[in-house]
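ok trying this again, last paste got cut off
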Amino acid sequence: MPDHVYVTGMGIISAIGNSVEETFHSLYTGKTGIGKIKYLDTVHKNDFVAGEIKRSNEELIALAGIGDYNRTALCGYIAAREALYNAGIVDINEARTGLVTSTTVGGICHAENVYKDFFEGISNENFTDSYLSGVSANIMASHLGITEFVTTISTACSSAANAIMLGTRLIKNNMLDRVVVGGVDTLSKFTFNGFNTLMILDREWCKPFDENRKGLNLGEGAGFLVLESERLVRQKNKKILARIAGYGNANDAYHQTASSPDGVGALLAMEKALKIEELKPSQISYINAHGTGTANNDSSEGMAMQRLFGAEIPPFSSTKAFTGHTLAAAAAVEAVFSILAIQNSVIFPGLNRHEQMKDVSISPIDQLMINQPLEYVMSNSFGFGGNCSSLIFAKR
């Protein structure tokens, strides 16, 4: 029987805080981080709001203290460093340790600013040095001292969920004792242009699961967890934040960017996650929904939750109106939210919702709920191409 896998540390940086402590305060007080674009130099600066990290590149360089790297590498390192500190890890080599990170656009936030000059022979800098997805992972691993295993996953918005899933399986199969898992994505002109072309950006604050939702707000951030084997946790008498109780991935292969109308991929992912420990749907205490605020996603996910849970659906909410959609980082950012919910016995509300969706009968939580005994929390992340993933975190 494989050992359990525990979360012993977590770190985060996003629009609502530069640490776990700041993040919890923002969630608890209902403080959104979405606002006017300040740091990204884009022609859409005055057209859209976004969930920017409240630090310039220069400030992030100073905060990280590892050198002049691109924004993606810096944010990923800052969050992963906090996770290791939070886990009380001083000697990274005392156990077989790996890094599984994720991203969608990697260092394109830097590459897009230099590639024109590169092709015109003005600059000696090779834009591919920062463009490739694995570059930020290697930078992070180098400065964290991780050499045993390093990889990057890119499956759109489910990327970090799949990173957490892979890290869990590496430990369960006795290939590693500890894995730092998560994801990072930062805003770029490329991202804004792409999502604007798809016509799924809201020019105002997004409102997930509202009948009049118009689209998502883009955000940036990084979230990382430290996963450790049960043997290592017992041996070191480590503090446990949560346990990985379930995980599932499925692909409905319906469309390049849209989810299937009946939510079949999301349904399969949630069912697979429950099956890991033979949990019943009624055992889930709260669902941190993917809830992007787009017409297609919220309808599809709502349909899938309704099909799985029926009339007994647990409280659910989308927290993307706090941070914006952080793409590959979303599942890791929301894993931190889910564990904070468990630790503090609270359910964080969705924001900005006013009217019940007409095509589903279920309704999300709109107000903070305190003193909630949460045993199992499900977190959903559904990506382009139909890549759907669900995670379940347990209190013990």
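PB: full thing came through this time. The chain has 13 helices and twelve strands.
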